[in-house]
Specification:
By secondary structure, this protein is mostly helical. The chain has one helix and no strands. The termini are far apart.
Length: 122
């Protein structure tokens, strides 16, 4: 004899099949999430290695720039000292030459005027 299934048994089978499919789908999504998380972890590790390398390069460039800046600062200090020395030498030369030159020119002019007066009186 053929046994006929009660309608509640059919519903129970359908609910079981749907629950099994949902469970399989959730497990598949969880597995995909784990794979994506592992890929992201590898990418983060690669990025960390690259960032360390770039930061080391930046550190070297900054050290070189600091050395160059110190060298330029020294050159500027030397140029300022040289400018001060040249300025002092120029003032000293002006002071030591200007007064005798003015006196010599005044003497020459006075002598020329005296000579002109003497010639005019004759």
């Amino acid at each position: 004899m053929l046994a006929t299934a009660a309608p509640s048994e059919g519903v129970a089978v359908a609910v079981t099949v749907v629950a099994t499919l949902v469970t399989v789908a959730v497990l598949a999504a969880a597995a995909a999430a784990v794979v994506a998380a592992r890929r992201m972890r590898r990418a983060a590790d690669d990025l960390a290695v690259e960032v360390r390398r770039v930061l080391a390069d930046v550190d070297g460039v900054l050290a070189e720039a600091s050395t160059d800046l110190a060298r330029v600062d020294g050159l500027i200090g030397s140029a300022e000292a040289l400018t001060g020395t040249i300025g002092a030498a120029s003032r000293l030369a002006h002071a030591s030459v200007a007064t005798p030159v003015i006196k010599a020119m005044a003497l020459g002019r006075g002598t020329a005027r005296a000579g002109a007066r003497l010639r005019a009186r004759r």
